[in-house]
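Write out a sequence, fold above all:
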Amino acid sequence: MNSQNYNFYNNEFHENNCDSVFYILLKSTLFLTLAFIILEIGADIKTIQKILPSLNLDFLVPIKISTFCLTLSCIIYLIGLPLRENRKIFNPYRALKSTMPRIKNIIFFILLYLAFDLMSLSYTNYPNLALPKYFTSISMAILLILSSVYINTKDGDNKTNVFLIIFAISSLLLAVSAFLYFFIKGETYFTRRLSLINNYNKFAFSIIFGFYSALYYLFRSNTEYRKRNLAILIISVICISAIYLSGSRRCHFMLKLTLPVIYLYGFIDVLLFYKDDLKNNFTHIMEYIISISLIFLLTIGIIWMYNSKTTKYSEKLAKENPGIENLIASRDVNTILKDENAMDKRDTLWRIARESFENFDTQQEKIIGRGASYHFEIYDFEENKNIIEDMYQRKLGTLDTHPHNFLFVDLLDGGYAKVCITLLMLLSALIFTFKLLKISTVDTIFLLIFSIILLGDMFLEVRNGILDYKFLWLMLLLFISISHEFNIFNKRKVIK
């Protein structure tokens, strides 16, 4: 449990030619891809076509910056692969053989899920609605393969820590950008909520994912305690404030559920580190306690100032424009987060999904579902559409609504069979996590916490099934990196 046990790889692990220009470019474009995946989710960054309309790329599918960076990675890899100096470090077979076996069960169920989903296209009414899932799966699979090349290269980097730093910096950029926008403009994207995009849940979740990545890095790296406490203080104040002020109820709940566990782990870590001489190191223990206390005091202060200013702005706007009170999000963030009826809309969507499945005509349909697009179709039925439009007080587009729950998506599209595959996939990931317990407490705790927040988000979101959920793929990347680290570099007990 001692954080001093987690060290960067020493220089003796360096391979020849790790300073190759192709390897450096491959690393750089991979890092940019990972960063933009999170930034695009949390800030809804425009596609290449919208950023550079003069290129006249309208005939192509929307190209995101992360896709562009990943394509560059592939080009660099393919050009560099035949060159003699890169053959050893770019060897795909060697990389996959070294990194993938520890998660072979998870990969098997992912492939089985995709195979079943492809089969379901034969009896779906709108196969085009399933395409985004395949695009995500293919692009993220390519990212994992190229990342395995980087992970397998003994270049002195602690690969897990590098990935965590990328996730952390990306999310901090989102949080800081939102606050800067507020301070510069004097208003937010909404009237009350702090968010860079309309989907404040995605904004908030992108921040909590990076926030926990930052804490994960600080607890597993060889950071001196005083510096670690200061970093925890600064990062926590920024991220907790941003998540709370986004008004995302799910992220707020997950924060209350999991963050105390992390801070408690940090306290136990400090105690164990100084257990042989607690008396003389009492000040170090108190520094951690004071840091955690300051986090909550400073966060409360920032939230109060934000709410105060946005309330005054909202009241002024309503006074100057009579009759728009209901159009400017008149409730403050505190009221939004305490709304006991917030889940009513989700309950209605889930009830419709459950009743639709129960009304399947045959037992075969319940076993294999009604195809890869059926979770959209049920909300287009007139009786269901009328209920939802009354609930949302607006007209809905064609095939515009979905269950907002990954289990109902799989149940409607693929029946019991697909749900079983999904649950076995998640169970395999959980088993992998618990295998780490005898090797590394800090990794087990944080991976379990990541699992909790990802499951929480998937229960309330997910448009096209879990393989269209990019955070799940990023979690898989951490699995690959951590298992390889302990099996190869740290020479600890092998994860089988």
